[in-house]
């Protein structure tokens, strides 16, 4: 068994993590740390969390054997952890429930969040509706334009979406604006962060809430392998895409002690690692401080954050959770990449071969699994975290694929004739 005790009391994962925040926020973070320490092991908190996951989210999500895909690859058996089947369509809701439950207990009736693609915004708006909490979501004005269905979802759920016009008008600008709001309204406001980033205790807390994914797999993997006639064991490799890193930490964390299981994070290499157009913070970044913690970030020689790119908005982030930085340095996890093109191919392949439309983010992990499977034996297994469903991405895919889809760019905005 691999020995692992992270983070330390100040939230350090080795030299990464920690808490870089203004004085006003130091108090709020201390308050949050104390509340989390109090409720983390509280049986009533845990009972309510499990209840919500079971009855509101629909957990446990199944582990599915992608039999046709495995056969066609001719190597390892590929299994998919179906986070796409969760209520709201991705893993993010696991975490927003946990944090909203803390907000209720801390007596904070107002929730703020930031969102890029809108997935975290929707998950936050959803749980705020469920708990009767006020919800304000900051979103770059570019993203508001690009992700209009999710903006409308948030409106339907009763949230206020605030477009942010500064900087590149995307996720990192929304994050700065949310921080500013929090400093101003810290008394009555809880800031729900959507990934394993930010100052301590967020990376640890979000990881803990998302760990339900890996915990379920520890039970499910031996069972399903036995059912299909394999040895009842843990997988040889666990794969997940890495944006901020929360779906990856959620499935990796319970597997860290299992040394025979490789942990592989798949970053978005966009148009290629050497193109300058990618979001591969762990492969091409260097240590620095971003959004309250020390981690690998994409920066230029002057420490300025560089522009990132990915076909999938959810992976388009210049940093990464500090625990991934640590796992990379100690060699417990490996970080690889898939390009836009490979992800898009895997997206179509999974649609047609397994009848599952994956999120473009998750398609990166699927793409790498397809390559890896071919190098392994049929008695070996790969577990892929299918972090979300692809309904949100069909417009992007239609624009890029120039296939004979009913909603080609040329017919956008017009009524759909024939079919469907
Ligand atoms: C947001 C999102 C991601 C990326 O975020 P992580 O924190 O890296 O998990 C991945 N997949 C889906 C479906 C998402 O919505």
Structure description:
Helix content is 42%, strand content 17%. With 420 residues, it is of the alpha/beta class. The protein folds into two domains: 12-50 and 92-207, Rossmann fold; 54-89 and 211-402, Rossmann fold (3-Layer(aba) Sandwich), CATH 3.40.50.1100. The strands form four sheets. A six-stranded mixed sheet has the order 3-4-14-9-10-13, with helices on both faces. Mean pLDDT is 94; it is low at 404-420. The structure holds pyridoxal-5'-phosphate (PLP).
Descriptive keywords:
14 strands; alpha/beta; 420 residues; Rossmann fold; binds pyridoxal-5'-phosphate; four-stranded parallel sheet; globular
Q: How much helix is in the residues? A: 40-55%
Our measurement of the CA-to-CA distance between the termini, rounded to an integer number of angstroms, reads 53 Å
The ordered string of helix (H) and strand (E) elements is EEHHEHEHEHEHHEHEHHEHEHEEHEHHEH
CATH level-two architecture of the largest domain:
3-Layer(aba) Sandwich
Strand order of the largest sheet: 3-4-14-9-10-13
Q: How is the CATH topology of the largest domain named?
A: Rossmann fold
Ligands bound here? pyridoxal-5'-phosphate
Query: Any idea what the shape is?
Result: globular
E-strand count? 14
Short description:
The protein has 420 residues and is an alpha/beta fold. The chain folds into 2 domains: 12-50 and 92-207, Rossmann fold; 54-89 and 211-402, Rossmann fold.
